[in-house]
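Usage

Read records sequentially. Each one opens with the input sequence:
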Amino acid sequence: MNARDYIRSWRQIMGARRSVFMMPAEPSARFRGKLVADRSSPNPRNNQISAVPAFAFDTQSYTRFGTFDGLRLPWPIDPSALFGRSAPLIMEIGFGGGTFLRDLAARHPEANVIGVEHSHHCLSDVERALAKHPLPNLRLIHSDALVTLGYVCGEAWIDALHINFPDPFPKNSHVDRRLLSPFSLALIASRLRPGAALHIATDVAAYARSIAEDLAATPGLRSRHPTPWLTAVPGRTVTRYERKAQDRGITCHYFEWERTTGTPPPVAIPDQPADFAEEVMPNIVLHSPLTLDAIAAAFQPSQHLHEGIHVHLLEMYQNHTHHGLLIDTFVDEPLIEQRPGIAIAEHEHEPHRYIVRLAPLGHPRPTRGVHVAVSLIADWVSTLHPDTEIVYRHVQS
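and closes with the structure output:
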């Protein structure tokens, strides 16, 4: 999101015609140290993929070239609405350069194919390729893998799932960041249809052993071969990363497993509202003798933990012209990470009456963690002066 987009969104927050405020020209937006740009603004280049049909979803779910934002889609989505037809569903999570994904869609025109990716660079590369060579049966979703598996996908939803060379996070302190774990594999098992295929590839021997142990311990999954993995798959589309590993003489490990006909145990995940449009937008109204300058002067970056939800209040920005504050916030809740802005705006006609609410910057989803963040900020403001009073609270408990 560029500075102009921030100005436009800030005007929406304040209801102002003009806005001059203290904010970096290119505000940072980072998740775990990786730059995250805004991909939620509709782009006129969407029409270059003429095969994308009309959808039952709000067009705000688009980013560019028909890519969908996983945080703005209905949870779970209806595949027939996403594609305009009913067909077997194939998914690749973490498609990287997109060679494997595009070949998958080209080889299976009878199937609906979804590619899920969190990297903006990779998404942009595939978007450009699809602009030149459209594939009517392919959809891209910008999303984290666990958000996709936990909320975007429904139970017994996928006919074939591919995960190629996920990050092995070799450091012992980073092992918990790996995509493939007992929890995620149990979630995958619940999202596969009976008989559906699960394909995993890695070039890291230690990771392969870990995956094999976790797969064997996951109810509802079994290998299609006598061994847990193969070291070669004839006819497989070779990815760029895979080719580099082979050129260095590194052995690749290919898992070909499937969902059994039995029903795997349910996986407990936190409930979240299913429809973005119908979700409760958090807002809290306060009356306080404090000025915005006083509130801003009292702000210090802080971290909070509430029932498994981590909220980091990172930085505050002040709008001197139209009487408002914006707090850059990082919310880390089970399966979901977001970087929303929380606004503190003064009522235009009632001095010292403030509303704390979610800002529209980047179109964050008002999840339970975001509600917690709004509550934390309002409660913090209420502690700054004994005469500060919360007069209205509209947040999820």
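Summary fields computed downstream for this record:
- The longest helix spans residues 368-382.
- The CA atoms of residues 91 and 114 lie 5 Å apart.
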